[in-house]
Specification:
single chain, mainly beta, five-stranded mixed β-sheet, two-stranded antiparallel ribbon, 1 helix
Length: 138
C-alpha cells in the first residue's frame, strides 16, 4: 500500500488480490509473521547499512521500513529488506521532524510467497513516479 498525503492508502495494483487474509491491526513494534517472513517496523538499526544491521540482529527473513531506504541484504538462508518510502516527495515537508528525510528512497517491496517461503523483491520508483514490475511499467 502506498500512503497519500490525505492519509488514504492506495494500491499500485488495484485489480490484484495481494492476500486472502483481512488486514489486521498490529501494535507498533509488534512483529507479524507470514510464512517464514516477519514484518516489523524495525529492530533498532538505521542509516545506509540498515538492512545489513537488521539482518545481523534478526537472523531470519525480515521486512522492515524504519529508515525509508531501499535495501536488501542476504546472507546464508536469511535476508532483510528495507522497503523504502512510498510517499510523494512534493509533500515531504509534512515531516520536518525527520532530519534525514531527503535521504529517503522512493520505492516499495514485494514478498512473493510459495509454499510458505518468502522471496523478496525491491522496486525503485523513478522521477516520473513509475517502476517496472514483471515487465510492466506501472
Amino acid at each position: 500500500m502506498i500512503p497519500r498525503p490525505d492519509g488514504v492508502a492506495a494500491s499500485p495494483f488495484p485489480s490484484l488480490l495481494l492476500m486472502k487474509e483481512t488486514w489486521k491491526h498490529k501494535r507498533y513494534g509488534s512483529p507479524y509473521k507470514v510464512g517464514d517472513t516477519t514484518f516489523l517496523h524495525d529492530v533498532g538499526k538505521c542509516g545506509v547499512a540498515a538492512a545489513r544491521g537488521s539482518a545481523a540482529v534478526y537472523r531470519g527473513k525480515l521486512v522492515f521500513g524504519h529508515s525509508h531506504r531501499c535495501q536488501i541484504f542476504c546472507e546464508g538462508d536469511y535476508w532483510a529488506m528495507n522497503i523504502g518510502w512510498g510517499g510523494a516527495f512534493e509533500h515531504i515537508d509534512y515531516f520536518p521532524e525527520h532530519r534525514a528525510r531527503h535521504e529517503w528512497q522512493h520505492g516499495f517491496g514485494i514478498v512473493d510467497f510459495y509454499e510458505g517461503v518468502g522471496t523478496p523483491q525491491l522496486y525503485l520508483i523513478d522521477d516520473r513516479g513509475q517502476t517496472v514490475v514483471d515487465g510492466v511499467r506501472i
